[in-house]
Specification:
286 residues, mainly alpha, MetI-like fold, transmembrane, MetI-like, transmembrane helix, MetI-like_sf
Length: 286
Amino acid sequence: MSAPDSPIALDNPVYRRRRLFNRLMLGLSGLTLGSGLFWLAWIILTLLLKGGSALSPALLWESTPPPGADGGLLNAIVGSVLMSAVGTLIGTPIGVLAGTYLAEYGRRGWLAPATRFLNDVLLSAPSIIIGLFIYAVYVAQVGHYSGWAGAFALAILVIPVVVRSTDNMLGLVPNSLREAAAALGCPQWRVVVFICYRAARSGIVTGILLAVARIAGETAPLLFTALNNQFMSLNMNAPIANLPVVIFQYAASPFEDWNRLAWAGAALITLLVLGINIAARSLFRK
């Protein structure tokens, strides 16, 4: 019988080199983490310092004012909520069904890999391209900007995020659960609905919340689709106010009161997106 391997000596040059490399990589990782947290804290602190004075109850119940007058962002908030809600309601079912096909039915053949590749391209595509696409196929055809056009653009941004999260979460469901249900004579659609969806529910919901967080601050597609409205409007078939475009216009204006409202709107969106991301990761981390 051969003797057991002797432990590596602490003065072994290979061991010292590996330990040094490990410490170096840990240090670089900690440095990058600290850098990311530093910039995030700086951005949030800047937004709160510049827009904190305008974060008041009036911001939530008064509409956007003319120059030199007091007001809030009620019409912009309502317009953003309407378009984000419609875009999420349109994009979520499409994304969940597409992700379900990729994970459960498209395991063979070329269609699923091609769809995943195209979904990754759409996921990384600049949002302004989506806005130009909706402008060409919808706005230019009906002859006017509208909340519906903005919602359609946001729905296209929602779809790839939900497809990716649904595909990944269903892929984590153990095959033993599917096999056990199939052994009991359960058809595949029942396996998907009553077993796979329930097992992956937390991950799918997290993906939907992250998609909502992504579209909450999108400006470029709304410039080509919903445009803006200075007044309160619930008509989705006409130009409608929204927070990102109002922030863009007010930040570039020469009026100090509008600049203050732009900072307040930016702080509001940032806190909303940050809250959604924290909630998605804390409530559904299991």
